[in-house]
């Protein structure tokens, strides 16, 4: 089968690889019908997330069940499904505590042997372990594109909003207008925030998309000082909560300084290196900081919100390409050519 292979640092290529096979009775083989490129794929390619090279990239997918192990009960051949980047088992200590993203028996698709050695989703077929626990049926009314982002960027944005403790009427500042930040903006409005301030760089297309998804105010960080601007918009008080979705040290510091006394900062941007947080300011202002990976147990809930019309992430799809074009797609995504936000790939 064809797949996007990662043979050495800074290199990726579409090549023929061996089609996956069942390794456990709880596995399924899925024919991938849609996948997409994520910022963490770029982090792996460039080495900011270290890994042992020589594997297929990708961790987001929609697909059709092709083959099932003998102990799989909830899925059959032909079912349309999606699943998380971390295919959790559902019965280990961490899963039972609600920490499915940190499943003790899982790995991460397309991330190397350090993270379980699970082959990636930028391929025609994938093997998914623990199928009954981690997979979700896709409602008939929803298309592949409508649910493409539920497992990763939407789950991440939704988790960031949950950790921020946003209440109806709150003012929220979202730092970073990339795919995760845009999902956080949509989820913040869904949670009842009356004001959502999008803080981004001088990328007019992404900031316009932020408005489309619910931002009430836009701050161009390269044109104006974000903290001063947030204070002006909130009559000197600061935002009730801030979500940092870029991983930038400067943005993390601005998020801390842009919230009110006893405000909350939710960090979900992945930083490629250690960052400095002004801890003395956090302490004296009683600021709460939450951070971490997405709760991938929210997939079914998010599909329900999409099906009911409360969430629509289709505007994030700016490009549609085939698997034979994926090398060019990765390059476009990294360079942000042609107003790229998300590129969906159809094998």
From TrEMBL:
Residues 7-345 form the Enoyl reductase (ER) domain. The keyword Metal-binding applies. Pfam families: ADH_N, ADH_zinc_N. Coiled coil: none annotated. Keywords: Metal-binding, Oxidoreductase, Zinc. GO terms for molecular function: oxidoreductase activity; zinc ion binding. Signal peptide: none annotated. Its cofactor is Zn(2+). InterPro entries: ADH-like_C, ADH-like_N, ADH_Zn_CS, ER, GroES-like_sf, NAD(P)-bd_dom_sf. SMART domains: PKS_ER (SM00829). Belongs to the zinc-containing alcohol dehydrogenase family. This is Alcohol dehydrogenase. It comes from Anaerobacterium chartisolvens.
